[in-house]
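Structure tokens please, single chain.
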Amino acid sequence: MRHFLDFEKGIAELEGQIEAMRHLSNVGDINIADEVARLEAKAGRLLRQTYAKLSPWQKVQVARHPERPHFSDYVAALITEFTPLAGDRAFAEDRAIIGGLGRFRGRSVVVIGHEKGADTEARVRHNFGMAKPEGYRKARRLMELADRFGLPVLTLVDTAGAYPGVDAEARGQAEAIARAIEACLRIRVPLVAAIIGEGGSGGAIALASGNAVLMLEHAIYSVISPEGCSSILWRSADNAQDAAEALRLTAQDLMKLGVVDAVVPEPLGGAHRRREETIAALGTALEAALEPLLALDGPALVAQRRQKFLEMGKHGL
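Here you go.
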């Protein structure tokens, strides 16, 4: 059963009617094909109208949709011979970040990304995609491995932020994130990052400081979640919608600001409606972003990556 968001109530009602009529059409000699076609056209129009004018807060909801493709879905479809590599070689294995070796369009790569989990059991196992220090240390280890063997790095970002628990802070959460960002900026191989859902705070930047940063059309990317921002500024999470407006966290805003390099279109109604189509589109965009970087040598890649982020600082971002 499809999960509908709050602002999709009208669409949900129409699609419910369509589904009910399809069941009726199989009873006796009743022919209601014309009525189904009319309702489908009406639902399609409403879907187009709704998604043509999504507010920032509505985009936050789409980015968090539980049926949206996750890291494991992209890996299964785009990466062949994927071999996961576990552990940070210091404390533990963090399942919120998955990484390993594989082939992307025939080329050997290292792939790293946040995994939120598709159901309740998986979400708990992957800590809802919120990594602890060992997750970021694992990511740094894999980036250094890629650097050593000359393999391009692809990262897929989908996290509300780094895990804020006391145990994570005790083990050096801020230091682990900083070291991961440092590794992103230091490696001498191409690094292409994609924001596929939520890109929250330092937990996202730790994997997204790349030569090229892509973003799905309805993904979000921000220094803090709208709820967190609201709690700080208004002392309540009730102003999350206002915070979403102020944070400029949509792909369209961030493209204008130069924070991301390309916006990858999603199917009408969001990535969750046509998962395979979304995954294929991102694969094509990743390949297009990676291809020109392969012609650059190590020092040129490092210089380009660092200059990219220094330019953001010049504009006060």
